[in-house]
Amino acid sequence: MDRIEKDLKEKIFAPGCTPCLSLYQPTHRKHPESEQDQIRFKNLVRQLEESLKDGTGEDEAEALLKPFRELEADREFWTHNLDGLAVLGCDGFFQTYRLQRPVPEIAVAASSFHTKPLLRIVQSSDRFNVLGLDRKKIRLFEGNRDSIDEIELHDEMPRTIEEALGEDLTEPHTTVAAYGGTDSPGAMHHGHGGKSAEVDKDTERFFRAVDKAVWEHYTEPNSLPLILASLPEHQGEFRKISSNKHLLEQGITKHPDSLDAAELKELAWEAFKPVYTARLEKIVEEFGAANANEHGSSDPAEIGRAIAEGRVRLLLIDADKKIAGTFDEEFGKVSKADADNGLHDDLLDDLGEAALKRGAEIVVVPEYDMPVDTGIAAIYRY
């Protein structure tokens, strides 16, 4: 997920090449459903080929499609699917992204990449992290309302208490006090050095190291809410020392090792849903007040002008709506287009990208959570 966010800013928003080919499709994690994914991809590549016939030479089109065809034939690639796939390509750039949630089938060639499905994922307000924790080790997950997956941990993230404490980890020390000889049945084994107290200190130091690393490598860069999944006694110990302001009050009082992915996702969403709902309700309420006082709008043309002037603070975008058209960032002009004619961009994509570049907060939500039917709603800074 971090790579998608990085690529959006550094490569995808300004690819420096045209036409840009964007392919999205739902995929399947398990056999036999996954068998259809490769076939669907092949059909979508054919749609890209058709899109390129209008205004692109045959040799150029074939060069653009070559990496897509090679991916289509890569059987190993299709054995590791998640819930969705994004493939973006233009002259000198080709990238694939496995996605945690299903996306609609899209195959389009345009003057810029179609980014709304990716924006929905990285800007969606339903994303969260789950920290699985006990006294010995941790696991970290990223999830949303649809799915949850374990994260490959950052190199500087301690995975176990041994990695976190190293040589400072307390070793168990026992001696034998012999009464009647060391080999006698009455030999007594005694622990020295307050072993129990030292173990508690080790646990606290481990939890502090984990709290610091999660904040530095995950929570602070991504601002995602954090849900703690651990036994009740570890919940209390970790919360006492945690300074992570995104740690939710409600946690999961089971360790992820005792849950399958579906159970963990359901419990995590149960913990997070009240936070998600409250935040969305607050945004919708703010939009209503702003719109009534001319400090907001749901008109794409008005929003375009406000984006160009740097006045948009927050933008709500409908994840399920597509409007053919373009946005001139310099002059703030919105132009509608005929979706059936040749290369066309998604106007909502263009508006979202331009607003994000100017520091606006972007929140992409399903259609049923939108307060308007225009596909977009803005709250202005002034």
> Strands of the biggest beta sheet: in what spatial order?
3-2-1-4
Provide the low-confidence segments as ranges: 173-193
Outline, from the CA principal axes?
A: globular
End-to-end Cα distance, whole Å, is 33 Å
Fraction in helix = 25-40%
Give the CATH class of the largest domain.
Answer: Alpha Beta
Number of helical segments?
A: 10
Beta-strand segment tally: 16
Q: What value does the Rg take, in angstroms?
A: 26 Å
- Percent of residues in beta strands? 15-25%
Which architecture of the largest domain does the CATH hierarchy give at level 2? 2-Layer Sandwich
The succession of helices and strands, N to C, reads HEHHEEEHEEEHEEHEHHEHEEEHEE
Offer a few descriptive terms.
Nucleotidyltransferase, domain 5, 10 helices, Translation, Eukaryotic Peptide Chain Release Factor Subunit 1, Chain A
Structure in words:
39% of the residues lie in helices and 21% in strands. By secondary structure, the chain is an alpha+beta fold. The protein folds into three domains: 2-114, eRF1 domain 1 (Translation, Eukaryotic Peptide Chain Release Factor Subunit 1, Chain A), CATH 3.30.960; 128-170 and 203-275, 2-Layer Sandwich (Nucleotidyltransferase, domain 5); 294-380, 2-Layer Sandwich (60s Ribosomal Protein L30, Chain: A), CATH 3.30.1330. The strands form five sheets. The protein has a four-stranded antiparallel β-sheet with strand order 3-2-1-4, with helices on both faces.
